[in-house]
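User: Hi! Is it possible to get a structure for several chains at once, not just one? Here's what I have:
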Amino acid sequence: MSDLPLNLFEQQQRNRRQTVMWMAAFILFFAWLGFGGDLAAYLASKDANGAAQYRFPFIGIVVTLIGALVTWRAFRGGPKSLLWANGAKEIVTPSTLEEKQIANVVEEMAIASGLPLPKTYVIEDPDPNAFATGHGPEDAAIAVTTGLVQKLNREELQAVVAHEMGHVRNLDVRLMTTIAALAGFIVLLSDGLGRFMRHGAFRGGRSGGGRKGGGAGALAIIVLVLWLITLILAPLIVRLMAMGVSRNREFLADATAAELTRNPMALASALEKIESSHEPTRSIKKSAAHLCIADPLGRKLNDRQGALANLFGTHPPMAMRITRLRGMAFQAAKIQGQPA
Amino acid sequence: MTTIILLVVAVVVVFWVISAYNGLVAWKNQTANAWKQIDVQLKRRHDLIPNLVNTVKGSMEFEKETLDAVISARARAMQATTVGQTASAETALTGALGKFFAVMEAYPDLKSSANVRSLQEELASTENKIAFSRQHYNDTATKYNTKQMQFPTNMVAGLAKATPAELWEITDEAERAVPMVDLGMGRKPQA
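Assistant: Yes, the chains can be modeled jointly so their relative placement is included. Here is the combined structure:
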């Protein structure tokens, strides 16, 4: 929390920059996967005179291009695939009173923040939760579970939507959605390649490489080992980084919610209600965990403080968030209570 | 050498004037836009009221006075022109509607009808939208006013034809005491 930004503009800039950095890191990761493979192949194909048969870094170029394509797809199509993967349905024309209420609440918060109206989505799930996605205010979407609409009263619902509106306004959605899409792909890739390695490809590669040049062969193996380690650790690293990215932003979005509704206590009691229903939100996938207002996996870890929770929790401890909101309410009451 | 320095200073000043001017114009337009947003919501409330009155007219004959208060407050609000007039007329309408909803609590049949409930949600939401658009207008207008008064932007305020925007203030003490309208969601309004 030491690096909390000073104002909205800085926060938006930071989110833009970090999105680009994540995308660049992802493409670099692919480049390493490709060109590292090339290097290993090049070293392995060297004969005694130092002349290699494998010269053109064919794998590297192809894999990097694929990486760039995947990254671009994750950025562009991230919001859509995220909503789809979590079974969110858009409310086009509200039919029931509850749908009307959530559509109205979203519109109220769009007005309060002065942003264009985001699309409203509903996820069929009894556990209360919500998330926002999109690239920014122009194409934002806010998704809430049916449990949220049922368990919270109107003011609490408004506070939760205001929190999500805060993520939209701060451009958190752009960064978090991109990370969600990229993280999802990395996990998939690492799983797939791991399986591929175990089934023969690895053994075949070694026997084919031969033992022509001793030094070059050892180097090739080192490169190969490094290459494998990155591949195995990538999903873990990506997840750790995604968690760190999301925690600070929750406090900021809570503050935005208080600013928009002028009612921090509503969000505090909403968070209490969300927390007290300890069941995991089954409809929401793991890769979207860091986007939600409360950890959808229902992990106890997020309730604790300390180094471990700081490293592995996607969300700051609920108790800490609620305390901060109460503090804001107290401040506001103190100011209003004074004679003008 | 001195001419170069003077030239650089002149260029910097010109660029600053341009950006300050454009900044003020952008704020002016944002303030005007924020005001339009209130207008949209007010108009929506004016449109919803006849609907509501027609729906409940039959079942609330005894409360003709309350209904009439809403109708006349609406008529007055629709004629207001300046910010100040609109503010006080709309505040009166909010008060009349609040009383009307409080009275309606005494009619359980009416309250439970799906039609009325949906109308009530619409009106409650419109009340909130008015409150929030007013909040947004006041925030924007305050920032605009601060900007044009602060040094050194105040030097180009005349050039950009920036004049302080009038805030929509809550003048009525009673209105200030009324919490954000939250009706029809199962809780009784405070008497």
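Residues 47 and 160 of chain B are 37 Å apart (CA to CA). Residues 38-172 of chain B form a domain with the de novo design (two linked rop proteins) fold (CATH 1.20.1440.20).

User: Great, thank you!
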